[in-house]
Structure formats: C-alpha cells, structure tokens
Amino acid sequence: MSENGISGINRREFLAMVAAAEGAFILGFWVPPRANAQTAPRAVWYEESTTPEINAWIVISPDDTVTIRIAQSELGQGVWTSNAMMVCEELQCDWTKVRPQYASANRDARERAPEWTLKVMGKGATDPKGGGEPGFGNRDRTGVGGIPDSLYRRMRTNAASSVKDGRYYLQLAGAEARERLLLAAAELWSVPVAELTAKDSIITHAPSGRTTTYGQIAGRAARTPHPNPETITIKSPDQWTLMGTERKNLDVPAKVTGSTIYGIDVRVPGMKWAAVKACPVYGGTVKSYKFDAIRQLPGVRSAVQFPIPDPALTRGRIELLDALVGLRSFQKMIKSVIAGMCDDTPAVQDSKPATWQRGVLR
Amino acid sequence: MAFDLNVNGTRHTIDADQQTPLLWVIRDHVGLTGTKFSCGIGQCGACTVHVDGQPVRSCSVPAAMAIGKRITTIEGVSPDGNHPIQVAWKEFDTPQCGYCQSGMIMSALALLQRRPNPSDADINTAVTNACRCGTYHRVRQAIHLAADLMKDGRR
What we know:
By secondary structure, chain A is of the alpha+beta class. Chain A folds into two domains: about 10-25 and about 270-355, no CATH class; about 55-255, Aldehyde Oxidoreductase, domain 4 (2-Layer Sandwich), CATH 3.30.365. Helices cover about 25% and strands about 15% of the residues of chain A. Chain A has ten helices and twelve strands. Chain A has helices at about 10-20, 35-40, 80-90, 105-110, 115-120, 160-190, 215-220, 250-255, 290-295, 335-340, and strands at about 55, 60, 65-70, 100, 195-200, 200-205, 210-215, 270-280, 285-290, 300-305, 325-330, 355. In chain A, the strands form four sheets. In chain A, strands 1-2-3-4 form a four-stranded mixed beta sheet. In chain A, strands 5-6-7 form a three-stranded antiparallel beta sheet. Chain A has a three-stranded antiparallel beta sheet with strand order 8-11-10, with helices on both faces. In chain A, a hairpin with a 2-residue loop joins strand 5 and strand 6 (about 200-205). The longest helix of chain A is centred in the middle third of the chain and has 28 residues, at about 160-190. Residues about 1-50, about 315-325 and about 325-350 of chain A have low confidence and may be disordered. By secondary structure, chain B is an alpha+beta fold. Chain B has two domains: about 5-75, Ubiquitin-like (UB roll), CATH 3.10.20.30; about 85-150, [2Fe-2S]-binding domain (DNA polymerase, domain 1). In chain B, strand 1 (about 5) and strand 2 form a beta hairpin. In chain B, helix 2 crosses helix 5 (about 135-150) and helix 3 crosses helix 5 (about 135-150). The longest helix of chain B has 17 residues, at about 135-150. The mean pLDDT of chain B is about 95.
C-alpha cells in the first residue's frame, strides 16, 4: 500500500468507477492518507463524552475500570494483554479492572504524539535506568520502519516488535498518568505529593490515613497537567511486579462467546461487500469478462476490473491483483459472486463470465 | 418468500430465498456474527452450528433444511459466557486469533453432549475443525476439562 492508500494509481479512478456503478461503498483496507486526514473536519466519535481520558492511552471510569487503548491488532499473539500489562505496570492500577480497547487509527493520523514520549524513544535518547532499547538495527528511528511521531507512536503490528518497540512509551504512558493521579490527590488534600503512594488503583496518604481511588480522582487528574513530564522515568526490569508474570489473555472471554468483532463482522450503514476474484495462475491477468452476465447474478450490483497499471512500482508482484471486483448487497453471500465469476464452476461453465490469460512470470 | 427459523430459542421471520446457506441467514438476516465464514465448502468447520443438537456446517446447507428445527449458535451456548465448555476454554487460554473457535466450541459441545467422557480418539473423529493458529493441543485439553466440569455439574 502506498501513501495514497490503495496502491498509487488508480484509487481515484477505481472509486469513480465504483461510485458511478453503485454509489457509496467502503473498502476495509483503505486508510485515509495523512495529508488529507489532517485537513478533514475533526471527528469526535472516538472521544468519550462522560469520562475524560488521562492521556491518549488511558481512561479511568468512576467505578475504577481502567480502559487501556491498544494500538496493535490482537491476532492471537496476546498483544491486548502484553501492551496493557506494560501500561498497568507503571499505572499501578488494579489489573482485574483493566479493559483493553482498540486505539483510534483516525486519531493517530490526526494527532501528534505527546512530546514526553518522543524524548525517550525514536529520538536517540535511552532510558536512564537501563533495560536496553528496541533493536532498531538499520531502521530509521523515526521513519516508517522506526517509531513514528503520530499519536500512538506505532500502529502497525509486525516483525514481533509490538512489545520491544512499545515498551518505553507504553510504560511512560502509564507512569505519566500515575504521576498526574498522585498530583491531583496531593492538590485535593493539600499535601506534598511525595507523601502519597499508589497501589492497585488506591492512593494512600499514610501520615493522615486518607485514601482515594483512581476512579474518584480521575476527573481531577484529567485536568491536572504534569509540570515537567520529561523528568518522568520508567521502572527498570528489577522493579517490575506485573510485567514478566503470566496472566490470562484479556481477548479470550469475548472469543469464547462469539462476540469478538472481526473484519467480516463489521456493519456500517449502507455498506456493500466487494469480493475480489484474481486469476488462479500466478502472474495471469483478466482476458475478458461479461459485465452483464455478472451483474445479473442474484444480489450482484456491479463488477469492475481492477488493474494495476505500473508493475514497476510494485516490484512485479501486484499483477496478482489484476482482478475483478464484484459488489453486492450485504444480505447476499460472497460465495456465489466468486462462483459466478469463476469459469470452472459447473453452474456457470456455459456462460463463462470471466476468462483469464496467463502472465509471464518475472 | 418469508419463513421462520428458531435460533437460540427465539423465532425469527426471515425474508430470503430458502436456498440461501444457513450461515448467511444467521449472520446477515438474524444478525448473529459469532458464526464465521471461512472456507465456504464445508471443510473447515468455522461455521458450525447445532441443528436439533447435531453439528452442522452451516455454509453448506440451505436455510430450508433448518425450518421447524432448533438452531443453536455460539451466542446460544450460555447467557453469560460461563458454560463449562467456555470456562474450560478460558482456563487454557485456548483461542489465539479465535476465528475458528466458535465452530470449534460448537463441534466439541456436540461431542460432549453425545459422549460425556470422550477419548482422544473420539475427539479426533468428531472435532475435525481446522485451526490455522494450531490450537489443537489446547482444544483437546479444554474438551477433557469441560467433560469433567459438565460431569460435576450443571448443564
């Protein structure tokens, strides 16, 4: 995928064809290019109106539920749990009340990361308390292959790097929030912040015996900036109490009830399905297809050829996507589109709505 | 022409071709998306539901086949996610990506209802669902634990 979302060319042309045929539709793999996203009207759908966030990663509800936003995809590798543990280690909240939630890609595209996360990683600085830093190797630290300066620093999920790349700024996110919760309590009680301790979502002022909970102080903490967040340090490995322990995976309960939302489960008003039929032979291309025959299949709205005009841009790999894209109403099934466009399916052998020609392997 | 289906104890009136695969009626008309589409040819088992207690690969049977019968999907296994088989699944952190696991659980549950103390050979024969993450060893452990929990108890 290029900077333009769908590979270079033809996104506009492709969308225009589709729009002419069918009106609005959504392709799940298209993301807005950043330049456009920054000038677009500000969206507010991700903001929680009743519960203010402490920082972009952390929302604490009055009932002490801690929502931790995760910028990586949970694919069974446990990243919903490991990322949340790194935040929780520093936040020192009650682990049993942690609830993971996907971070907003929209917001990541619009907002820059807090300065205090940039000083630690991706700018060459290292944690003064040691513990190593991510293995950048030959990667550009702040480039696409490094840790970008967008809000959640790193939204991709790849290269077994979610934990080792994310540790510094995720621990920092937890530490920054913890410090502000403590500051808010100190301000409320008019006591020095150094006299307060935080453990399992409870803040204690030992000299007076007073306590409060994160949930009770969160609203105040959200309005309490840290005077000098760049001085916040993170725990070194010998201080960890949660990280390094085994915990139940937080994504599992939803997966045993069928309530996890996968891409195929997303429903958006007015949404249509697009099904791609590629040539069954590597490097092959569409020779011809019968637009009317395909369009008359039950539930099918339209079909478009989806060529990639400049193989040089894709190192010769994307001919595989020289394909037909069928659009149909969501009540109908994908399978018959595929069957309808596949010339070896008995039911449509006679009509052969699409034929292919073999390409030259490069 | 509209027809009625009983899904998880609730009657739904479906306005669709009765030859529509049961899977798509469940997902798109009833609106229960826990049951998954994967291979589309009845091989992988991700779409497994129960029809009158029997495990059925819903991508490959017409909705007409389930008219007048009781359909149970993953959403109907328990109201709170704490059926013994779900407790067992959680105990071993059984799913990874989880996409196949609704069907895996439905196949395993059908086995346990028919054979409360299954051997490994019984599991191999009855639970033929495919899991690309390769969770088979934990699925097996979880089925044995679920068998114990179901014997102790309640459902």
